[in-house]
């Protein structure tokens, strides 16, 4: 059987090459998805600045809902009680406790916001002085890499030296310090540090402590000591690579990477199953005469089945081996794009052991073995005489089981689309996406029936008006709808995934940005690239002629825990911090003028659900894990599905990483005068249009958007390759037909025209069906997020996709047609298929 299978491979190179490429790419992507999953589960990130401390004690990096499931990384840095350092230093086995804290700082005129630390924390890396001395009050020590940026305040030299005055912006405020020394890290540290004296640090960072570095005594195991430390609730002792979570934001929960790898891997598996099944089905149907002859010569149905399975699985195994070899490169490439675009922290290490490869191999083999089994079953069960009579043009039939399966998936697509309309924007985005895949599966299962149904009177008349080539194209589309379904499925699938993902994401993104910006008044917006808006800058703008009102803006996320809000568990509430009359939402009760001190304004729906009202107290868990008690002073509306909790900006800023507002919203009487405000005193501060509101907010949505675009791009690439393969296989297999046509008087040009018409019609059907499948996801999401069924996104994307499909179909048709008609007509008629 194996020798017969190998002989068959020699004569059907095109068909098996198509299967080889599809499996190669699919298995490599599955291995890459497995690597992303393992990375998300392990969350290994080697510490850099804290690497010298065997144990790092810090606040828990992720929020775990008290009565819910899942977890989410805290949006702000979570510190520990300063008094904990003294307590831990008295623990048996602890040799030294080093306090670490960070605050926004940058060397002027630098461009990047860095971090300031106390000089005592230099031992956590460790940093060593290469010149100068430790800083005293009014002095700093700079990482040697910052010398190219630091410029002396006076003098003509471009580079500062020890003893020079340098300008450092601390928490948005420019200050002058004496350069006391220059230090270098003993190991790799990506972000340079600025070190201050203990006295200056207390002034800038108040009483906050970010982490404690614990150094065990001689002969004490770090892991054993970490288990013995008596820590308060919400504080963790980290060792090994887990220490990276205390240093790098975002390395706290595996949920984002698990979701990404799950969606990505699931999509790849479904696409591979649909595309490979179509290719295998096409290959098997093209060999019905060969298989019929085997049956007629005495082969049993089981032997025919084994032959088809053996030769196909032989190609699959070879392609799988090559795909697994490519899987590591593919995984690192995708992970590099994720880290390079800020989707996951760059410090996170990509882990891909043997498990992802084993999982990808098992899933691929099982998936394709089932696919090959279904394809081989019908060919093996057919009677020899019937097979010989049908070999030239197989019948266009779809079994009852396929009709039922197709109907189930079609109904699921409609059900998902309808139910999405009535969901919140967050749930709509999560639930509405699968409609693209269920719709694609329905079309893939019912492909031949769909082609014949779409080949209506208008299309038939249009083709017949193109002459003899058009008439032949109509006949072929009817009698060869099974073969053309193999071409239709990849085009339809790619169109549905590409357009569905992109337009769903642009629609959600547009709705979220509009909901956010429409709730805020702002004629002009003041921003700062130096860490935030200091109080003095805000006061200067407020006192500027032409300003009628101004408010600092702080953004974060949090949870209502007292009373417990079950509607926001792992999905936190958006928090807005304001201190001026810039909120547009309608006040249903109370007044925003009372938004001072420890107060809050909440949406009426939330108040009704929690059974609270004006004057009642809430316990809100803020982004730094602090539980604050606030009094309700107003019930305010927000855009449906995008409501926020509004707090005083001073209160909220105290619980953010920078400790400062991110923007200043200004309402003006004379916009031009305000724009001419002199901000030279504030390095990095700029005045711009209200579009800065959407720009800043939109940057936070880039993660979800980039994930959708990545999935769409990979699915497009996969199905594009599949489309090329199936078109080439289908056309090359018809060389005998073309030879007969040429012997009957048809010219090469007429045959080429017939091919163009056939594949253009199939491509158009695939585009239409893909758009329809995408609409079951796009339109309901648009209704759920924006209130009307009009998606957001540029029209040129749709036009560009149509052009791309044509650029795939037409050249491949031309090249494959030329190759199929290269032999002389008589030689083509007598040639074997494949």
From TrEMBL:
Alphabetized UniProt keyword annotations: Cell membrane, Membrane, Transmembrane, Transmembrane helix
Gene Ontology CC: plasma membrane
InterPro entries listed in its UniProt record: ABC3_permease_C (IPR003838), Membrane_comp_ABC_pdt (IPR038766)
Keyword presence, Cell membrane: yes
Pfam families found in the cross-reference section: FtsX (PF02687)
Transmembrane segments: 257-284, 304-327, 354-380, 401-423, 435-455, 484-503, 706-733, 754-783, 795-816
Subcellular location: Cell membrane
Superkingdom as given in the UniProt entry: Bacteria
Sequence ranges assigned to domain ABC3 transporter permease C-terminal in this UniProt record: 263-368, 710-818
Membrane topology qualifier: Multi-pass membrane protein
Name of this chain's protein: Putative ABC transport system permease protein
